[in-house]
Amino acid sequence: MSAAASEPSSGPASNRGRGLLAAVAGLGRAALDFARELGALALFFARILARLVPPRFDRDELLRAGERFGWQSAPIVAVTALFTGGIMVMQSLPYVDQLQAMRLLPWAASFATLREVGPVLIGLMFSGRVGSNNTAELGTMVVTEQVDALRLLAIDPFQLLVAPRFLAMVVMMVALTILGDAFAVLGAMLTASAMAGMEMFQFVMLMREQITLSDLASGLVKAGFFGASIAVVSCYFGLRAQGGAVGVGRAVNASVVGSAVGIVVLDGLVTVVMGGG
Amino acid sequence: MIGPVLRRAWREVRELTALVLRASALLLAMRLRRAVFVRQAYEVGYRSVSFLAITMGFIGMIMVLQSGYQAARLIGDYSLLGPAFIQLLVREFAPTIGAMMLATRVGAGIAAELGSMAVTEQLDALRLTGTDPVEELVVPRLAACAVMVPALIVLAGAFSELAGLLTARLVFEVPYAVFWDLRLLTYGDVIVGAAKAVVFGLVIPLVSAHAGLGAQRGSEGVGLATTRAVINTSMSIIFLDFVLNVVLYPVYAR
Question: I need a labelling partner for A220 at 20 to 30 A (CA). Which of A247, B57, B198, B215 fits?
């Protein structure tokens, strides 16, 4: 029986007397674990870079992985983006309505979508679909000792599997964000015409005046960073999986959580560095 | 191409509906394993706090940065930054982005756990001993999430607001009192945010438990089930958010 079904109930507060000390120790342990994980990820990233410059990786796998990642996630990205566009229109509608500035609606809805909400949500979906799939696949290869078999044959798993997938994820994440942006604008247009009675043609014309290329580009730059972090995190946790099916499940879980943290942290850093430009 | 997809989607919906009805019937009959419930509440609630603090803190910081830059460029006045931020946070971003984050943390966890039990035939073992896996495993997780997810979403909003407050003070030199201004926030916003939090608290455990229970074929199956849990949960959240926004529009738009 698993831990969930049988109950060795040792709650968090079983040691009340030394609660404060335990809390401090726990905090320290968490910080050390975090630092260790971060260092391991940095080393992992360095090993990927060493295969990319100069390029020594499997080109067939790059194309295969790119095609697979794209097909896997294009439908869910499109659907997510369509609804996101609609949601952003409905959230900005009360403001433009109140200000009696209906012509600002395309700006209000698509500015945040293109720059921020779109890339973040598409990144989360991409991590859920492609990143976790990648972790599951690599994890299964590890626990069934296929990766060891590769090493025995003197094949570097980084050249064959990790580096090409890294590149494929960065490229596909940017491509999918372009697709997602298009669907988000479509969703915004449809919602604006249904809820605010704005002609779709008018929506596009206003958007062309109000949205600049740098809004689009800023979102795409972020998407590239998100793709890189999803690739590093998902390959890292996949190759570290151990202990059969349970271990693979745990690795996938760690991978999606790590990718989500990576996405928001990188988003923050990029936003600070670009400073609204 | 379309036919099989639709058939599969229809089967998913049917199975999910059956699970929803069965789990809610058991929950309403108070057939709840208390010990498992408490453990799951700890697992879902307490263990997600630091993850939410990091992710939602950054989200709050980013949103204030982005809107601050725009406010500086367009109107040169930050007085509306705080009021509009907390309004959007309450009725949209804390529930939706918070729930998306919890879908990855909690949903994937539930699916990985139940999926591992499914492929190692522990579910069959449960059925053999006359225990209903839905009652034993799904209902406690549903109850735990129904209580904990709304609480976590309130926390998520608090983390974002706090990060936003600090960002506005440090980057744009907006005094705390100017940023912390609730004049735009209405009861409508709070009702909409709370409704979303409650709905997402039910969606996350049910959709991911369904994905986990359906896991097949060894370690690969567990991975696939976990993937499906994250995707299905996130898509359900976005879709339901859209629906709730349409339905509740009169409530928050005044």
Answer: B57
